[in-house]
Amino acid sequence: MTQAVGPVEAAPRTRRSRAAVALPLVLFAALALLPLVTAALSAGYMLDLFVRVMIFAIAALSVDLLIGYAALVTFGQAAFVGLGAYAVGMLGAHEITDLTIALPVALLASGLFALVTGLVCLRTKGVYFIMITLAFGQMAFFTASSLAPYGGDDGLTVHERSTLFGVAVLDRPVVFYYVVLAALLAVYLTCRTLIASRFGRVLRGAKDNALRMTTLGFQVYRFQLVAYVIAGMIAGLAGVLLANATEFVSPAYMSWQRSGELIIMVLLGGLGTLHGAVLGAIAFLLLEEWLATLTEHWKMIFGPLLVLVVVFVRGGLIGIGTALAGAVSRRLRRG
């Protein structure tokens, strides 16, 4: 017999579902209108800043897909960002700049690296999985550092942004901004569709109890491997955009510190919410930018602040917003 859900219990669920729809709409609408605001305020530098923010939001979404929905804590996700960036830089060094070539090559390289490493990494669990993803990430980092023909430790300058069928569409800042925004929206909707599908339900079920899902007949390893490859390709896309945004490629893109920053972005925004990853990337990079204008020792403030937020704020910024909305709603009902 199905138990009826009372109005008191149904109301919070309704509010949460409405918030889950409303917040992403507001977030993406604000990002879409930002070029108009920057033009009105003559603050062109904000456009470049938010291009960088959205690129890292794409990479953060790939991390949230793994950690938030599959419970796969990885410290090697930056390696895929670096692979995507190096695909653009290395092809550009040979005068191959068209996006129709660079993007598939970057996605293929990231996907293959994710497949090969995932076959090994996913045989382990817990802290062993974390350490082996870290090891593969550092392997990619040191390999990039040893590529003397492509700059080695000094990195590689991208002399020309990617073209589209020979047309330099990305050279215009506003066009490039909207291309990055379209990529972010496409990745967000793709991840959201995946999570809502049978594939996503299996991932979430394995996160809660992998043994039970295996008993039900699902091959959890294969589902996790597919998720790992998809996340790697998403991070590779972020790398393609990052190389075009900075017009520079460096082994530092692959460092474990960068992977740690992506994890912090997800935790800061709200683990397992997708739009929390986007919000976390915005908050992380804007806070970093603001503190850097106050003092050259801004990391002394930034580090402890992030630790306090992650440790004491359950659910990140999304959790804070939900708690505040609930408190206001209760106050209004009483009043």
From TrEMBL:
Its main location: membrane. It comes from the Bacteria. Keywords: Cell membrane, Membrane, Transmembrane, Transmembrane helix. The chain crosses the membrane at residues 49-67, 74-93, 99-120, 127-148, 175-199, 220-242, 262-288, 300-328. It is a multi-pass membrane protein. This is Branched-chain amino acid ABC transporter permease. It comes from Rhodoplanes tepidamans (Rhodoplanes cryptolactis). InterPro entries: ABC_transp_permease, LivM-like. It is found in: Cell membrane. CDD domains: TM_PBP1_LivM_like (cd06581).
